[in-house]
Design the sequence.
């Protein structure tokens, strides 16, 4: 017996937060399944590529990301994120933000609830990269509270 072609996929996504030494910015890159993003936004009648190429679609994506993702300095001050845009690559939607690099990059607080409003089983992994060090925060069912990551020993 073969598995059904449209078997349920895991509801998961990843976010990368990294200091870009070349640009002097903090880059935030979200990757989620495009079909999940479209469903969460209630736009099931529109093709994913068409939706993500439209100004209205990009605005909706920005608004959703701003409402479901927050990152703060270690003391809790939210970072001011600048929306760069979004693109479709195969089955994934890539969504880009930047922010000024905080003076202190020894710790961050992340609240990554992307798509959890639409899918209670959504899991989001957030990787923080400072220099060559990486810290990971996982949020999902039963673990929705903000997570602190620290780069100090």
Sequence:
């Amino acid at each position: 017996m073969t598995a059904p072609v449209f078997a349920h996929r895991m509801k998961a996504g990843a976010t990368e937060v990294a200091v870009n030494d070349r640009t002097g910015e903090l880059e935030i890159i979200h990757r989620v399944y495009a079909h999940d993003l479209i469903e969460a936004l209630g736009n099931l009648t529109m093709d994913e590529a068409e939706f993500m190429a439209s100004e209205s679609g990009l605005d909706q994506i920005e608004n959703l990301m701003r409402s479901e993702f927050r990152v703060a300095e270690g003391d809790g001050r939210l970072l001011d994120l600048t929306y760069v845009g979004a693109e479709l690559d195969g089955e994934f939607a890539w969504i880009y933000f930047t922010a000024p690099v905080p003076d202190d990059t020894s710790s961050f607080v992340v609240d990554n609830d992307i798509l959890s409003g639409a899918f209670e089983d959504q899991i989001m992994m957030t990787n923080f990269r400072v220099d060559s060090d990486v810290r990971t925060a996982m949020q999902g069912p039963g673990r929705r509270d903000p997570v602190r990551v620290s780069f100090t020993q």
Q: What stands out?
A: DSSP finds three helices and nine strands in the chain.
